[in-house]
Design goal:
The complex is a heterodimer of chains A (295) and B (377). Chain A is an alpha/beta fold and 295 residues long. Chain A has 2 domains: 115 residues, NAD(P)-binding Rossmann-like Domain (Rossmann fold, 3-Layer(aba) Sandwich), CATH 3.40.50.720; 164 residues, 3-Layer(aba) Sandwich (Rossmann fold), CATH 3.40.50.261. Chain A is built from 10 helices and 14 strands. Chain B contains 13 helices and 18 strands. In chain B, the strands form 5 sheets. In chain B, strands 1, 8, 9, 10, 11, 12 and 13 form a 7-stranded antiparallel β-sheet that branches. Chain B has a 4-stranded antiparallel β-sheet with strand order 2-7-3-4, covered by helices on one side. In chain B, strand 17, helix 11 and strand 18 form a beta-alpha-beta unit. Chain B is elongated. Classes of the chains: A alpha/beta (295), B alpha+beta (377).
């Protein structure tokens, strides 16, 4: 098993002809992801050449692409100025999962989009995220697939490259993964730590979860409490930003709302209080995962 | 992007919110000239991107021209939470009957704008939030429909009892929401929102942050950026599309991705070193970005060693390698460069490095340990 993406995934790529979209579509098809179509307005009717000469049809609209291909997921590589529109179109198209890679989407636009997605029962992963990979099954996004192998570890992270760091260490130690998810670093994201934990909870192959957080906000603290109340699968944690300078927060509003500054110390303490062992270095995640599995 | 009080007030005025007049002075002569236009008493206020200005002595009342001169001389050049004061706002003092708090921000939990009101505003609002949290009222707004009149009315009645004040507050709340949305703000705050003995409601202080991702839509707001308020290297970084924060150490760090960049700094500390900076070259990096990054890092005289920690995803190792090689041709770099390069297009990247006589580590711990060992302390 796996979460979010697997061999049933039928993927569309929005922005398939752009620099990033075309490069990573080739990568995804090389990994064996079932890319059934692409969308670039104005290029409908053309074909994109995937790995090994695979001809991927391009459509002008998401509506048409979903109708013709029976796609159930989409990944967005569209530049920031057009990404909100692409996500709105995706939510309206009938797919169940929208993976938004784009960085720099205005937060107010995401606020409207998340509300729209919730109304339609569509899951957004991201934005500003590296996507998701279920080793041996499917890769959606930009996570380098050379670093993953199938196995019992579930990985959730707010960061992109720090996820890769953690995952390659696991792989080198022979600890494969069920699914690795990058939930994104933006203030408003569609899929939270808790959403992923819930999905892993019903994934029978996941025996341990690695949760990689960073400073800012309260998502990690809430997830830690959720773990102690709802989850039997053990969790290992890491928090980046011990040495980060205190944020230059200007107004009072943030602190008044959350009552928290979201420091690395605060998050680490909260993890430990809720039974999550925290690695001092990324490499130490491996030892903690091993010890957990050996128990 | 944080903007100054006087800039935030300009946006509030444009949206119809009553704000007392005021002008900016860069020296005490200007401050006195401005004060002459108003009736005394006036207030001289430091314009810095920081809270706690009043408590730091950056806000002074002046009853005479001499007072204004002295206040401006005292405040200009002072540091408030590390920010140098280059400008003061001179504005007439107001008679205050009550002080309230009114703010709007994006709330992560509800993923929507939240309006925050408290009838007890002023400089102690954070203490009020801790000691009397029930007095802070929050209302989350569905951004698709915007703020409804009855919602603004409900909030206004929390602030005031008197009918006329409530009516003014309803308009101000609606105008503030409009200002928030139309500016692409991530936070706006009026503290205090005052009522005067003559029954007027006014904003006498304001703070505002604009979402950086919205700036491309608002050319006018871009001109509000105060490049003097940020270190020169940070300006250079922003213009090159990099994210950079200077720190006090000697290990210059160049990393792709904010999380990995923070973890790299943490690891430098773990191995007994001290990071000189946070620098995220971001995704989709082209070689020119790497050249800019190296220029910025080498502009810091404290840097003794330059540490690259690149894990290719959307960033391609060959782009970074090409950037490093280009930079070595363009600028003279005396510090050793210790590189870790792995991930997307790793082989191509290593090839480019080795043809220029450079080598790279594949493990993060190895590269950080090596970089720290190259420093003198």
């Amino acid at each position: 098993m796996a979460i979010l993406v697997n061999t049933e995934t039928r993927l569309l790529v929005q922005g398939i002809t752009g620099r990033d979209g075309s490069f990573h579509t080739k990568e995804m098809t090389r990994y064996g992801t079932n890319v059934v179509g692409g969308v670039t307005p104005g290029k409908g009717g053309l074909f994109f050449e995937g790995h090994d000469g695979q001809q991927i049809p391009i459509f002008d609209t998401m509506e048409e692409a979903v109708r013709e291909t029976a796609a159930n997921s989409t990944v967005v590589y569209v530049p920031p100025a057009f990404a909100a529109g692409a996500m709105e179109e995706a939510i309206d198209s009938g797919v169940g999962l929208v993976v938004a890679i784009t960085e720099g989407v205005p937060v107010l636009e995401m606020s409207r989009i998340h509300a729209f997605a919730k109304d339609r029962g569509v899951r957004i992963l991201g934005p500003n995220c590296p996507g998701v990979i279920s080793p041996g099954k499917a890769k959606v996004g930009i996570i380098p697939d050379q670093i993953v192998v199938p196995g019992p570890v579930g990985v959730i992270s707010r960061s992109g490259t720090l996820t890769y760091e953690a995952v390659i260490n696991l792989t080198r130690a022979g600890l494969g993964q069920t699914t690795c998810v990058g939930i994104g670093g933006d203030p408003l994201i569609g899929t939270s730590f808790i959403d992923c934990l819930e999905l892993f909870k019903s994934d029978h192959e996941t025996q341990v979860i690695v949760m990689i957080g960073e400073i800012g906000g309260t998502d990690e603290q809430e997830a830690a409490q959720w773990v102690s109340q709802h989850l039997r699968i053990p969790v290992v944690g890491f928090i980046a930003g011990q040495t980060a300078p205190p944020g230059r927060q200007m107004g009072h509003a943030g602190a008044i709302i959350s009552g928290s500054s979201g420091t690395a110390d605060e998050k680490t303490r909260c993890f430990e209080e809720n039974g999550i062992r925290v690695a001092a270095r990324p490499i130490d995640i491996v030892r903690l995962v091993k010890e957990t599995l050996d128990r | 992007m944080d903007i100054h009080e006087y800039q935030a007030k300009e946006i509030l005025r444009e949206n119809g919110i009553p704000v007392p007049p005021g002008e900016i002075a860069k020296n005490s002569d200007q401050a006195v000239a401005i004060a002459k236009n108003y009736e005394f008493t006036v207030v001289v206020k430091a314009q810095v991107h920081s809270g706690g200005r009043g408590k730091a002595g950056g806000v002074k009342l002046a009853k005479t021209q001499d007072d204004v001169r002295k206040a401006a001389d005292d405040i200009l050049g002072m540091f408030i939470s590390g920010h140098k004061v280059n400008e003061v706002l001179v504005t007439p003092a107001e008679d205050i009957d009550t002080e309230a708090y009114l703010g709007i921000l994006i709330d992560r939990e509800t993923q929507s704008p939240v309006i925050v009101v408290c009838a007890e505003g002023g400089i102690d609002i954070e203490e009020v939030a801790v000691n009397n949290p029930n007095s802070i009222h929050k209302l989350s707004i569905d951004p698709r429909y915007g703020l409804f009149r009855h919602q603004a009315y409900g909030l206004a009645r929390i602030l005031y009892q008197e009918k006329d004040l409530v009516k003014q507050a309803v308009s101000i709340i609606e105008q503030l929401y409009q200002a928030f949305i139309s500016s692409g703000a991530s936070m706006v705050e009026i503290n205090p929102l005052i009522s005067t003995p003559t029954g007027d409601v006014k904003a006498i202080d304001a703070k505002m942050s604009i979402d950086d991702s919205e700036l491309f839509k608002h050319p006018k707001l871009q001109s509000y950026r105060d490049v003097q308020a940020e270190p020169r290297a940070e300006t250079m970084a922003r213009e090159a599309g990099l994210s950079y924060v200077k720190l006090d150490g000697n290990v210059g760090c160049c990393v792709n991705g904010a999380g990995l960049a923070m973890a790299t700094m943490d690891l430098v500390k773990y191995y007994g070193g001290d990071p000189a900076n946070f620098l995220d070259i971001g995704g989709s990096s082209n070689p020119q970005k790497v050249v800019a990054a190296l220029k910025i890092i080498t502009s810091d005289p404290n840097v003794e060693v330059i540490l690259f920690n690149i894990f290719g995803g959307i960033t391609r190792c060959d782009d970074v390698a090409k950037g490093i090689v280009d930079a070595l041709k363009e600028i003279e770099i005396k510090s050793p460069i210790i590189i870790r390069l792995t991930g997307t297009n790793e082989a191509e990247g290593l090839e480019i490095l080795s043809s220029a006589g450079l080598s790279a580590f594949t493990s993060m711990d190895d590269v950080v340990e090596q970089a720290v060992s190259e420093t003198t302390k």
